[in-house]
Inverse folding.
């Protein structure tokens, strides 16, 4: 056997040993340990894969990226899973894909409108603006934190071409209504599935309804690569365009270090380039370089094997928290699952009722002081954020609920790293708050 | 298309069709990505180490059904690489393949398919025809197949089974050398006759061309001259 293979096996055994010493489970000490809102959950396999990949020293996409994409395609039952370097990049590529000239009459052009919400993370809205499209904001429901279904059709104008919505914090938006509108008005649909990996609507995984959908592998999410994201689609033409946008806008689909994959490297003519111009350097889109490294994908391969367990833990933690916090429902608005859905929750959102005699910051300060991490619902109302004040936009109604969420909503964690001991502690601290 | 993947594989069987043409039956040693009929793969004879570049390879249309666990390719010796393949590859040899690639897709949009194949250019159509045998759908297809000599006739069984089982399948064989073939009826000696295509088609069909470059260029030009929309013409073109 090649000596290098023996050495590699020794190294990987040592990695396993290292994991067992370095990352052994620390006992939760109430009042001293922190109940995180999110975090990475892993065992030695992630480290082993990472080191294994690093020893290839191939660095760019390679065997682990290929394996991950194939496995993820199977997981979702789609034709294409396209790895990128973040969920935000996935959103950027997804909306950019719809601007491709290859889509002819259906392509999104400057000034076209995209329906979305302001109560969310900027990475859903920013790419709309970056592509010179106009976001049209609809209000959300308190409790579901998703677009109010009845508001969506009101938002449609002759310039509306797409709907781009996130399944907020894992709770699916009303896909029945959205799909009806998509069909009725011939709209594109992008599902931002970054916070909803494993959620289902009518039994079907979210991320499989839209023309494109996106996933994030940032450590706060259901599974991680450190940094990483993915675009999913069942449309091979859209997949090809998405890959082009990801890969500098090029027409070629050679992998890193490859040549003449198509077999026609020097025998085509594009634009007004001379016949036979090297296909590796033909660009059909104004693109980016948003690829992952194989090391990130290596972590993802190990994480994907644990994903179903992670999803079940999140659902279990959510159920327990709902039970715990239902004691305080006079003052707290607890999350409401969208009908016909089974969310894979990103977190547990809570809104303070109008008649409560305390403010959100009173409660979150108390929780944080007692080492329970909290987060606001991301950007609150993005139309009030400095970056978004002067963008071209249209707003349906007054976004009253969006403002309410901006002022009164926060979330705590349900990630798989939270166990019953921690949930008991959360219960205790909430009890303390409401006693005082 | 699904993410292409590099797969170690083993040659299971080799069939020699002529002094220049062979078929390889390849067994992947890892899970293969799904491919569509009409797509192609790269085949490398040398070992691939993920730490280094992909070795020298050549492209071949996949000639087996996407549902089959064994992948078939059929190749003709054209240069040094394919000569090496012809001379050295035997059952039990390990190779590397990467797949799937290609846009030569058979879009099921209700239109009849006209397949125009020259020599080993028939291979992408065989993948489609094999796949259709495993489905309940009986595609409406007319395959025009041209070969130089009778011994160049391959995939007889697939064609025969399609003729038996699919009432919508039509087949026209052209042999340049004036000699009978035996297993299948010859429509005409000589090259594929464009007038036959004109006569047998309504020109609303989807035309798929695969074969030698000169043949493809000629038929493409003829179809365009007869006002066939470029979008109806699909070409499996190689340099």
């Amino acid at each position: 056997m090649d000596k290098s293979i023996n050495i590699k096996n020794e190294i990987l055994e040592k990695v396993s040993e290292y994991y067992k010493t370095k990352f052994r489970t620390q006992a939760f000490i109430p009042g001293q340990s922190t109940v995180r809102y999110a975090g990475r959950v892993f065992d030695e396999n992630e480290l082993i894969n990472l080191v294994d990949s690093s020893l290839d020293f191939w660095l760019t996409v390679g065997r682990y990226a290929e394996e991950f994409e194939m496995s993820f395609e199977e997981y979702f039952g789609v034709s294409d899973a396209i790895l990128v370097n973040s969920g935000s990049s996935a959103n950027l590529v997804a909306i950019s894909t719809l601007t491709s000239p290859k889509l002819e009459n259906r392509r999104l052009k400057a000034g076209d409108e995209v329906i979305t919400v302001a109560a969310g993370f900027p990475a859903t809205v920013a790419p709309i603006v970056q592509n010179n499209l106009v976001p049209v904001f609809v209000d959300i429901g308190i409790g579901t934190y998703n677009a109010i279904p009845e508001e969506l059709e009101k938002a449609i104008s002759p310039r509306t071409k797409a709907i781009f919505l996130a399944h907020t914090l894992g709770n699916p938006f009303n896909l029945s209504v959205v799909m009806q509108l998509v069909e009725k008005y011939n709209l594109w649909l992008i599902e931002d599935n970054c916070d909803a990996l494993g959620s289902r609507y009518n039994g079907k995984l979210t991320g499989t309804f839209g023309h494109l959908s996106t996933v994030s592998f940032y450590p706060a999410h259901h599974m991680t690569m450190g940094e990483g994201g993915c675009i999913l689609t069942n449309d091979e033409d859209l997949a090809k365009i998405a890959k082009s946008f990801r890969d500098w806008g090029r027409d070629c689909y050679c992998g890193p270090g490859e040549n003449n994959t198509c077999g026609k490297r020097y025998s085509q003519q594009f634009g007004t380039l001379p016949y036979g111009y090297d296909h590796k350097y033909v660009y059909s889109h104004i693109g980016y370089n948003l690829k992952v490294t194989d090391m990130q994908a290596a972590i993802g391969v190990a994480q994907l094997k644990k994903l179903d367990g992670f999803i079940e833990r999140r659902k279990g933690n959510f159920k327990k928290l709902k039970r715990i916090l239902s004691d305080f429902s006079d003052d707290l608005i607890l999350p409401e699952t969208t009908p016909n859905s089974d969310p894979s929750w990103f977190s547990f959102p809570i809104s303070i009722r109008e008649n409560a005699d305390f403010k959100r910051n009173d409660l979150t300060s108390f929780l944080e002081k007692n080492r329970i991490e909290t987060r606001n619902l991301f950007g609150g109302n993005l139309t009030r954020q400095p970056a978004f004040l002067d963008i071209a936009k249209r707003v349906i109604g007054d976004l009253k609920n969006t403002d309410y969420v901006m002022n009164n909503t926060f979330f705590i964690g349900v990630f798989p790293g939270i166990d019953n001991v921690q949930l008991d502690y959360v219960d205790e601290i909430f009890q303390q708050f409401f006693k005082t | 298309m699904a993410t292409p993947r590099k797969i170690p594989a083993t040659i299971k069987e080799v069939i020699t069709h002529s002094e220049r043409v062979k078929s390889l039956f390849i067994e992947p040693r890892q899970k293969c990505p799904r491919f569509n009929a009409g797509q192609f793969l790269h085949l490398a004879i040398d070992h691939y180490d993920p730490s280094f570049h992909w070795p020298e390879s050549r492209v071949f249309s996949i000639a087996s059904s996407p549902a089959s666990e064994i992948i078939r390719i059929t190749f003709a010796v054209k240069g040094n690489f394919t000569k090496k393949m012809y001379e050295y590859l035997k059952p039990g040899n390990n190779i590397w393949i990467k797949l799937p690639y290609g846009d030569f897709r058979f879009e099921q949009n209700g239109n009849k398919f006209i397949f125009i194949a020259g020599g080993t250019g028939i291979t992408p159509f065989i993948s489609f025809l094999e796949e259709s045998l495993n489905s309940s759908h009986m595609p409406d297809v007319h395959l025009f197949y041209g070969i130089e000599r009778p011994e160049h006739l391959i995939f007889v069984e697939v064609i025969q089974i399609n003729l038996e089982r699919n009432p919508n399948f039509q087949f026209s064989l052209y042999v340049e050398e004036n000699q009978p073939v035996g297993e299948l009826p010859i429509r005409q000696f000589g090259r594929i006759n464009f007038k036959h295509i004109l006569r047998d088609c309504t020109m609303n069909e989807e035309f798929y061309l695969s074969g030698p470059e000169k043949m493809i260029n000629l038929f493409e030009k003829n179809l365009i001259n007869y006002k066939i929309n470029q979008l109806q013409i699909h070409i499996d073109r190689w340099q």
In short: The radius of gyration of chain A is 23 Å. Residues 31 and 370 of chain A are 6 Å apart (CA to CA). Chain A has 13 helices and 15 strands. Chain A has a mean pLDDT of 96.
